[in-house]
Amino acid sequence: MIIVMQTGAGKEALAEVKKRIKELGYKPHVIHGTTRNVIGAIGDERGKSVLQSLESMPGVESVVPILKPYKLASKEVRPEPSAIEIAPGLSVGGDKLVVMAGPCSVESEEQIVETAHKVKAAGATVLRGGAFKPRTSPYSFQGMEEDGLKLLALAREESGLPIVTEVVNPRDVDLVAKYADIMQVGARNVQNFALLKMLGQLDKPILLKRGMATTIQEFLMSAEYILSEGNQRVMLCERGIRTFETATRNTLDISAVPVLKEQTHLPVIIDPSHATGHASLVPSMCYASVAAGCDGLIVEIHPTPETATSDGPQSLRPEEFAAMMQKLAEFAKVTGKKL
Ligand code: PEP
Ligand code: MN
Predict the structure, then answer these.
(1) Claim to verify: residue 307 and residue 173 sit in the same structural domain
(2) From the alpha carbon of 298, which atom of ligand 1 is closest?
């Protein structure tokens, strides 16, 4: 932690701050500048937030942390990228580009089983499908809940694809974990710390979505909640953030991929469906995301988007998805990943 003194702060103020730093269990190291002094507080990183209170002492301008507030998610702790096993023989974060695909919501046995077979044939290795849906309106379809989870399990049995599905409420963690291979945390729950802590105690991979108004640092702090409880299998998912632009549902922050790659060892997944809101824009955003260096994609597919109970306009038809996957293989090759 660095304590920046105000210009013109006198010797007495400096001495008082040094004294307080020592009282808090740290060693002050003063750097004398021409116009102002700064003090480095040296000692145990944990609990350094107590030093923030020095900001209210006379003569202190600001107290600035020098290390990132997240640790387990940071490259300081683990410089190499983490490859996370999400199903037997399938890892995210290595040289394989993992594509998760399926409908926004599970609607019927026929819909989810047919989609599972078709996305698998096109090259997807994980089936997505929502059974608990976090909808903006309480009057919109809220998901089939446990019946939807059972249909996902059936689709897994039929297709052999592992399943990723969202848990919305902490009270449903055990229920969803009974069926899911990967637990999804939706954008609206990115700072539901009670939920994150519970997921941190599970032995299951977590797909953590970035919120629509979450900074990269806040996103990594949310990942830290899961990691600090013991669960190291966290994937980060960029799904678009809210900006002034209305031509797309959200604005896909593609730069989040290289920024996250600089700051964390955790794998990065892109969701171009919620980012754009329009099926016609999804393929180009998939190519761009792979070119930017993501580790995987999660894409919404529906056999008949016009009848979908949620997010039909952004859902690709299975044949559009298959065409996109063929082209994607070429982009993957250029970046050194396999589809
Ligand atoms: C979803 O995956 O269907 C979903 C609701 O996503 P998000 O949380 O990113 O809005
Ligand atoms: Mn959706």
Answers:
(1) yes
(2) 2
CB 191 within 8 A of CB 164: no
Shared domain check, 261 and 117: yes
191 and 325 housed in the same domain: yes
143 lines ligand 1 (CB under 6 A): no
What CATH number corresponds to the domain at position 209?
3.20.20.70
Q: Are 161 and 50 contained in the same domain?
A: no
Domain of 36 in residue numbering reads as 2-64
Place of tokens 């309106």: 137
Whether 212 lines ligand 1, by a CB cut-off of 6 Å, is: no
Nearest ligand by distance to the CA of 301: 2
Ligand 2 centre from 303 Cα, in Å? 15
Q: Which of 209, 237, 241 to mutate to test the pocket of ligand 1 (most atoms within 8 A of CB)?
A: 209
Does residue 69 belong to any structural domain of this protein? no
Task: Choose the residue to mutate in 274, 311, 314 for probing ligand 1, maximizing ligand atoms within 8 Å of C-beta.
Answer: 274
Same domain, 101 and 210: yes
Task: Say if CB 132 and CB 120 are below 8 A apart.
Answer: no
Q: Does ligand 1 have an atom closer than 6 angstroms to the CB of 302?
A: no
Instruction: Give the pLDDT confidence of 57-114 residue by residue, as tens digits.
Output: 999 999 988 788 898 999 988 899 999 999 999 999 999 999 999 999 999 999 999 9
- Token pair of 196, please? 């994150």
Q: Is residue 239 part of a domain?
A: yes
In-domain check, residue 232: yes
The pLDDT, as a whole number, for residue 46 is: 67
| 19-53 tens-digit pLDDT | 999 999 998 988 888 888 999 888 876 677 889 99
Distance 304 CA to ligand 2 centre (A): 15
